[in-house]
Every structure is written in C-alpha cells, then in structure tokens.
Amino acid sequence: DDAAKADLPKRDLVAIALRDPAGGKTRLRDTLSGRQTEALSWALFDRLIVELSAARPACVDLAVISGQEVVQERARQAGLAVLSDATTGLSAAAEAARDWATARRYRSPPLLPGHLADPDQRDLSLLMRVPCPANQVLLVPSQDLGTNGLRMTLPGGRFGFRYGPRSTQSIWARRRRRV
User: Fold this and answer.
1) Distance CA 108, CA 41 (A)
2) DSSP per residue, 46-112
3) I want to staple 41 with a disulfide (CB 3.0 to 4.6 A). Which of 12, 21, 76, 146 is the partner?
4) 138 SS3 class
5) First to last CA, the chain
6) Residue 53: which residues within 8 A CB-CB, separation 6 or more?
7) What is the Cα–Cα distance from 174 to 159, expressed in whole angstroms?
8) Looking at the predicted structure, is the pLDDT value of residue 110 above 60?
9) Do residues 97 and 107 lie in contact, with contact meaning Cβ atoms separated by under 8 Å?
10) Ranges 5-9, 66-70, 148-152, most confident
C-alpha cells in the first residue's frame, strides 16, 4: 500500500559520539601528555569523518553527538549534522542518538566512538549496509574485544553501552540475561 510505504523511513544515519578531545584517550595518559592525547583524538576524529564520507552511500547522513561546542563546531565545518547532547558516557549518547534518529524517522543508526583507531572504508560500508533485525543490537568488536561500534533497532529500548577491552563480551552477557 502506498500510504504504508510513505511512512517508512527513507534514510539511514551514522551517529558519531565524541566527548571533549582534551579529555579523551585516557588509557594513554601514562604514555602521552594531555596535549598529545587531545591531538590524537582530533586526528582520529578527522580520519573517521574522511573514511565515513568516502564509504557512505548517498542515502546515509552523518551526525555527531557531543555536548562540547568545540566538537560541534568542527562537525559543522565538516558538513555533519550536530546533536547537542549534554549527557556523559556512550550509553547516554547511544540513547540520545536513538531518540534523535527516531524523531527524524531514520532507520537503525550505527553508533561509533569518534576516535576509532583504524577505521576501514570496507568495514564502515558493511556496517552501514547490514540490516539490524527488530529488537536486536549488532556489535562491532575490536581486536581486544572492545566495542568499536554498534547498530541498534529503532525505536528500541534502553541500552547499556560498555567500552574498553572485552566490552563486547560484557554487553553480550548482559543482553542474554535479559532475554
């Protein structure tokens, strides 16, 4: 039915969560200075934007979630949508992205941390194309089984995001206990 098709979302969204780069990459604080970790966070964010822009199909929009004006301004300069979010943590950012995307009728958005170490166009393209079944979360593990990204169903429920080594296993275990 044409009316039902008109109600279907037409676009996808990739949401990028980035807190203040001056406070990012905390696990490297024993090795790098604050200025170096900030520069690294910006460099990783800029590279992620380049890789996502090259990998995304025309029907995918990019948005940055941050409560930091400096991050929002950099995202605007790169031509990205900005979701101003004063909450802290990736769980809150995931929920804010979900709510924002739902209100704008996007399909299930992938959420990526803004400082991925080695984004790959093929992997990013695959994440944008893989459908997410209803009431499911698709996790993207890193080599140490940390969480490099996720894709969730909209509108969806609350999601307890975890990050760091073995975080995908922690998320999986929590989700299985709920089922």
Assistant:
1) 26
2) HHHHHHHHHH--TTEEEEEEES-HHHHHHHHHTT-EEEE----SHHHHHHHHHHHHHHTT--PPEEE
3) 21
4) strand
5) 34
6) 62
7) 10
8) yes
9) no
10) 66-70
Across the beta sheet with 60-66, what order do the strands follow? 81-84, 60-66, 12-17, 110-113, 147-152, 137-141
Give the gyration radius of the chain's Cα atoms: 16
Nearest to 16 by CA among 59, 62, 61: 62
pLDDT digits over 80-100, tens only?
999 887 666 666 777 777 788
The pLDDT score that the predictor gives to residue 87 is: 63
Q: Provide the whole-model pTM.
A: 0.76
Amino acid 74 reads R
